[in-house]
Write a structure and sequence with these properties.
2 domains, 9 strands, four-stranded antiparallel beta sheet, five-stranded antiparallel beta sheet, Alpha-Beta Plaits, alpha+beta
């Protein structure tokens, strides 16, 4: 079963390496890893997608890392999930109209147009991105890059299931740093 884990951590050099090493040591493959700034200064939000039977053990150990402020397995929660993909496909003039029509069905857009290629930007739930890629494959995918999943618990359930740090609170180690 695939698990989606969201973690808040201090934005310090080496934190990403420690998180990835923890998964490696436990023998878990990371299917997707996305990190970015959060709403709190000096705090990053990481979304990790992994597959395994005892992910609880890894999340407990992840929380023990000194820079990690919060860890939540959101797999069973109602979440909003998104992913972005850039896909370069073969696009000779004879198929461009068909490609544009396919893009419209998935809410994708043309990001670049070359003499014989088209770069398509797809944003949506991971399953929607997969379906769009299935439709684009027959045209000939030349290059592709996916961002990885980002996830957030929906609505007010986020506060009940996993209360966030308030914007006026400083994470423990950031408070010590000044």
């Amino acid at each position: 079963m695939k698990h989606t884990i969201v973690a808040l951590m201090q934005d310090h050099p080496g934190v990403l390496h420690r998180v990835v090493s923890l998964f490696r040591r436990r023998g878990y493959n990371i299917d997707s890893l996305t990190v970015g700034r959060s709403e709190l200064p000096g705090v990053s939000r990481m979304t990790i997608v992994t597959e395994g039977s005892d992910v609880d053990q890894v999340t407990r150990q992840l929380f023990r890392l000194i820079e990690v402020l919060k860890v939540v397995d959101v797999t069973e929660s109602a979440t909003v999930e998104r992913e972005i993909a850039l896909v370069k496909v073969n696009a000779p003039g004879s198929v461009r109209a068909e490609l544009v029509a396919c893009c419209a069905v998935f809410g994708a857009r043309t990001a670049d147009l070359g003499p014989s290629t088209m770069v398509i930007e797809i944003t949506g739930e991971p399953s929607e991105v997969d379906r769009c890629l299935d439709v684009l494959r027959p045209f000939g995918i030349k290059e592709m890059m996916r961002t990885g999943r980002i996830a957030m618990i929906r609505g007010s359930l986020a506060h009940e299931a996993a209360p966030e740090l308030r914007a006026d609170e400083k994470p423990p180690l950031l408070a010590l740093a000044g």
